[in-house]
Specification:
Blueprint: H1 8-22, H2 26-36, H3 42-52, H4 55-60, E1 67-71, H5 78-91, E2 96-100, H6 105-114, E3 126-129, H7 136-143, E4 151-155, H8 169-183, E5 186-191, E6 223-228, E7 231-236
Parallel strand pairs: 1-5, 1-6, 2-3, 2-4, 4-5
Antiparallel strand pairs: 6-7
Amino acid sequence: MLKLSAPAYRLKREAKRLSREQNIPLHEALDRIAVREGFRAWSLLAAKLSATRPASKLFALLKPGDLVLIGARPGQGKTLLSLELAVEAMKAGGRGILFTLEYTAGDMADRFRDIGVDSRDFDGRFAFDSSDAISADYIVKQTAGAPRGTLIVVDYLQLLDQRRENPALMDQVRTLKSFARDSGLIVIFISQIDRSYNPAAKPFPDLKDVRLPNPLDLRLFDKTCFLNNGEVRFQAVK
């Protein structure tokens, strides 16, 4: 088991702080942290970490047609886990597609680097979409014809609820659920967790802690994955 002085997300926070304080590139700060942890470079630490993270085991529990919710408070690694699941799908011969307004293409390259992956290794099987028009209908249109087993990441669930002209959040999730099942795709929703969640009182958030500005029947999801303090809890929705 990989032993680090702190969870990886905390090490990355430390590297970002070091980068700001010493006015050095982030990759250099990450390498310094990696050396302290016993690795020659961050890429080697990330590759080792990726091999020990739960993405491969989690991916084996998913099946075409699944609608999955990954939830955590900021900085807990939910985006990285989602990307690792996309990598697992691509390793299996499928495709990975990310819809987000949170990240740029440059950010995505950094996130892949964080998990020890070069997205160019997948020969065009990863797509990135940051259109302002992202909605359930847009995602369906952009991924129509995608091969069975393609893994779609929506960053994040509440993004679908931001534009007044979009259908209700409940209707959009139902649309994507039907589309996933009809097309044999896997759809991962990254979700925000309400600020009221108290990790001291409960080790993991759950469906009751998902931030929902508008109604949504969370039983529409087939599986959930909640993260906290470097640990993961995965389960089927009953």
